[in-house]
Structure formats: structure tokens, C-alpha cells
TrEMBL record:
This is Uncharacterized protein. Keywords: Membrane, Transmembrane, Transmembrane helix, Transport. Residues 1-25 are annotated as: Disordered. Gene3D superfamilies: MFS general substrate transporter like domains. The keyword Transport applies. It comes from the Eukaryota. It comes from Venturia inaequalis (Apple scab fungus). It is a multi-pass membrane protein.
Length: 488
């Protein structure tokens, strides 16, 4: 019976973007479907009404705590979201980094010499860039929450479509696209930099012009392509019926809300008030993650920023230098996917994050103490291993999103975490100037374990009636609620 029902559901969804099932079909289908309500608050019988989304929530018309669907249906929809939403968001990040990160290839084409500046001037320029990034991060995030938005916005946007356990894997693809840019741009630079002298332009000028044009075109296309939410996909470009039929929209909305009911607390275009913003700033539960963001990338930041300059200094030519950067980023991508998978497999995030520090330490020691006469290939191998060290950014970003506990905090926390990461880039971009040893900091896992245990002790001691009273009367919100558990 189940297979027949699933077959019926599949045939009803063969045509993307059409409401092929009538209301009678829906009712008949739901009556025969085995109930599939994966983990979340809605498994707590009798308390569903406490998790109902606000009236202005864009998916409220699809909300139904009694709605049933099969696991096979959900898997098909997740694959569809991966194809239509996640893949394009990854393309956007690829385009962003193509234009933003090509300065590394430009350095290999004697850009500093052409501009009559030195490495210290380059460091100052990098610092100015990151400072501007920091100053604009929170304001742009607050504005984009109202008008639509980039990195923190993309994370928030993906959280509308994916459950908490699904997000780390998608974010690993997100940053894979980011680093794949380094591989693709190395090959592009190998050809584009040969245009030096054409129309009186240096090779690095051609690089900025052509790759900037690609970024601009993808950005314009993204504005028209991406829908505001799972239930708002209809448009001239995406079709008058949108990408998903009514049943698919109900599955998308209810599966996400059952995983995290706080996603129904705000409309996706609702702006944050100053009071909401200040509440997010003073949420000390998120501070440990911000501190980790400030410190964990410092050990390998200098090697990443100066890889092409190091290779040039070791005697490699412009074109060989660009090709020699590729293995580092291939290793980076493999490590990113592997460590993100491991963290979810063993359900540990901060402990897995230690891998990047443990990996980097012996390599930094080797680069510090090897004699100057060491082979250029040995130095290249050490630098490649350092740049390709375990990248736990996707793990930490998804943990920030998961531990936020509300849309308003998720909006600000993503921006604050990213600000801390960019601050670490400022530190990293000035390390070689002062010859400072990198700083290493780990952890804060114990903080979240302690809070979870305290809350579990209180929650488990409550009767069903006491829990119902608490949920009806509590003023606690987001990650302050007794029934919220932090990921760690």
C-alpha cells in the first residue's frame, strides 16, 4: 500500500511547478500515508499550539501540525531544493570570490611593482579592506533582512529551506564553491595574464576586468532567479505556477518548522527593531562562537594570503606559480567536505574544530625553523599543506545558525560571527610584517554542554502540565527557552 501511495505522490509531482493534485486527491493521499514527522517540537503531543508560526510568516498558509508525508517524498524535495536553490547559491559565492580573490593571481603578475608599492603597503591595503568590510557587515545584514540580500544572508536564506542537520552539508558545498574559485581562477589567470601589453594594459588589469564582468552578470541574474521563500516561487522567470506544487510547499514548510519552530517567528522581509538588535548583541550564549571565529583562522591566514608571493620569492615563474597553487585548494576542498561530514557523523563540532589547529602547528614550526637553503619544493609542500589545513568554517557557521534559536538572532549572529572572522583576517594580514607568532585558541565546548545539562535537568523534572504552563506563559525566546538545546 505504501509503495502504491508513494507512486501516486510521485506521479502527482512529475510536472514541476504545477498544482497537479486536487484537494480531494490531497485528502485521500494523506489518509493513506504513514505518518512521518521527523525530530522536533511537534513530536511532543499536546504542545503543538505553542509552536505555531506568527500570522505574517510567509508560509503560514501551508502550516499544518497534523500534516503527513513520506520520507521518500521529503528526499525528492530536498534533492529538488539542492538543484534549484543550493546549487545557484553556490554559484553566487563562486562568482563573488572570483572577483574578490583574484588579487592573489594579480600579485604573481608583478602588480605591486607596477603600482610602485611594497609588501607593507599591500598589508595596509588589506587591512583597510577588512575594516570597511567590518564596518558595513551589521548594517548591510540588517538592511538585507528587510530588502533581501551576502554570506550571512545566504546562510539565513538557506535556513529557510533546510533543517538544522542538513545545513552543514550544504554549507560545505557553499565553501567548496568558494575554494573551487581558486582552482578555476588559477587556470583562467594562466591564460588571461598572457594578455599583458594588449591595449596598453597589464595582465592583472585584464584579470580584474574580465573576471569582474563575470561576477556582475551572475549577480544580475541571481536577482531575478532566486525566490524569496519556499512558498513564493511564482514569477515571470520561474513560471506563473512556481517551482513547487501545494503539497510540496506544505512538506517544505512543515518539515522545517518541526525541526526548528523559531523559523516561523518572523516574516522573511520583517526588519529588526533596535530593541531586537540589542537583545541579539547582549546574548552571551553566542559569545563563545564569536571568540572562536576571531582566532581559529589566524594560523593559516598569512600562508593563504601570501602563497603566490612566497612561491615567486622561491624562484617560481608567474605561470608556474599560479598552477602550483591548485594542489593546496584541492586538498582544502577534500578536507572541508571530510571534516564537515565527520562532525555530523559523530555529532561533535568544536572538538572537530581542533583538527585545524593541530594540523597547522607542526607546519608553522617547520616553516619557522627550516634553513634558508631548503629546497623551494620543500617550502612549497609545507605551504601547500598549511593552506590546505582542515577548514571548519562551515561547521562553525552552521552551529551559529543552529544555536541562534530565532530568526532575529540568526540574522545578527551570522553577521557578528563573520565580523570576527574578518577581524582575524586583519590580524593574519599583518603577521608577516611584524614576524609575530600566530595565536592559537580553541574551544568553549564545555560552556554549551553545561548549559544543556542544566536545562535538561529542569525540563525533565517538569510534568506535562508544567511544561504546558511554561510554554503558554514564558517570556523566554529563542535560545533562552528551556526546551532549546545548543549544538556543540
Amino acid at each position: 500500500m505504501v509503495s502504491a501511495v508513494e507512486s501516486s505522490a510521485s506521479s502527482g509531482m512529475e510536472k514541476e511547478g504545477t498544482s497537479s493534485l486536487t484537494k480531494r486527491d490531497h485528502n485521500a493521499l494523506e489518509a493513506e500515508l504513514p505518518e512521518y514527522t521527523p525530530g522536533g517540537a511537534f513530536e511532543t503531543a499536546g504542545l503543538e499550539t505553542h509552536y505555531e508560526p506568527i500570522d505574517s510568516y510567509e508560509g503560514k498558509h501551508r502550516y499544518d501540525p497534523a500534516f503527513k508525508w513520506t520520507e521518500n517524498e521529503e528526499d525528492k524535495i530536498v534533492r529538488k531544493i539542492d538543484k534549484r536553490i543550493c546549487s545557484w547559491v553556490c554559484l553566487m559565492f563562486f562568482a563573488l570570490q572570483l572577483d574578490r580573490g583574484n588579487i592573489s593571481q594579480a600579485l604573481s603578475d608583478n602588480m605591486l611593482k607596477d603600482l610602485h608599492v611594497n609588501t607593507n603597503d599591500y598589508n595596509t591595503g588589506q587591512t583597510i579592506f577588512y575594516l570597511c568590510f567590518l564596518l558595513a557587515e551589521v548594517p548591510s545584514q540588517l538592511i538585507s533582512k528587510r530588502v533581501g540580500g551576502f554570506i550571512p544572508d545566504c546562510i539565513l536564506y538557506l535556513s529557510y529551506y533546510y533543517k538544522s542537520a542538513e545545513l552543514p552539508k550544504r554549507l560545505s558545498w557553499f565553501w567548496t564553491a568558494y575554494q573551487a574559485t581558486q582552482i578555476v581562477s588559477a587556470f583562467l589567470a594562466f591564460g588571461i595574464l598572457r594578455l599583458r601589453g594588449r591595449n596598453g594594459m597589464a595582465g592583472w588589469q585584464w584579470l580584474f576586468a574580465l573576471e569582474g564582468m563575470i561576477t556582475g552578470l551572475i549577480g544580475i541574474a541571481s536577482y531575478f532567479y532566486l525566490p524569496p521563500s519556499p512558498t513564493q516561487t511564482a514569477s515571470k522567470l520561474r513560471g506563473k505556477d512556481g517551482w513547487f506544487n501545494e503539497r510540496e510547499e506544505k512538506i517544505m514548510v512543515n518539515r522545517v518548522l518541526r525541526d526548528d519552530p523559531s523559523k516561523g517567528d518572523m516574516h522573511n522581509r520583517q526588519a529588526l527593531t533596535f530593541g531586537m538588535f540589542w537583545e541579539c548583541v547582549t546574548d552571551y550564549h553566542m559569545w563563545p562562537i564569536y571568540l572562536i571565529g576571531l582566532s581559529w583562522m589566524i594560523p593559516n591566514n598569512p600562508a593563504t594570503s601570501y602563497l603566490t608571493l612566497q612561491l615567486k620569492a622561491n624562484g617560481f615563474g608567474t605561470f608556474r606559480t599560479n598552477l602550483l597553487t591548485i594542489p593546496a585548494y584541492v586538498l582544502f576542498i577534500i578536507g572541508l567536505l571530510f571534516w564537515t561530514w565527520i562532525s555530523e557523523k559523530i555529532n561533535q563540532r568544536f572538538l572537530v574544530g581542533l583538527a585545524s589547529q593541530i594540523w597547522a602547528l607542526p607546519l608553522l614550526i617547520a616553516l619557522e625553523f627550516i634553513p634558508g637553503s631548503t629546497s623551494a619544493w620543500t617550502k612549497w609542500a609545507l605551504s601547500t599543506l598549511l593552506v590546505g589545513s582542515p577548514y571548519v568554517h562551515a561547521i562553525l557557521v552552521s552551529t551559529t545558525s543552529r544555536n541562534a534559536g530565532s530568526v532575529r538572532l540568526r540574522t545578527v549572529a551570522s553577521a557578528f560571527y563573520n565580523m570576527c572572522v574578518q577581524t582575524s583576517s586583519i590580524i593574519g594580514s599583518n603577521i608577516y610584517r611584524e614576524h609575530d607568532k600566530p595565536m592559537y585558541r580553541t574551544g568553549n565546548k564545555l560552556f554549551y554542554v553545561h548549559v544543556n545539562k542544566k536545562r535538561a535537568a529542569v525540563w525533565d523534572a517538569m510534568t506535562h502540565e508544567q511544561r504546558d504552563t511554561y510554554l503558554s506563559t514564558t517570556k523566554d525566546r529563542g535560545n533562552k527557552r528551556l526546551d532549546f538545546r545548543f549544538a556543540h
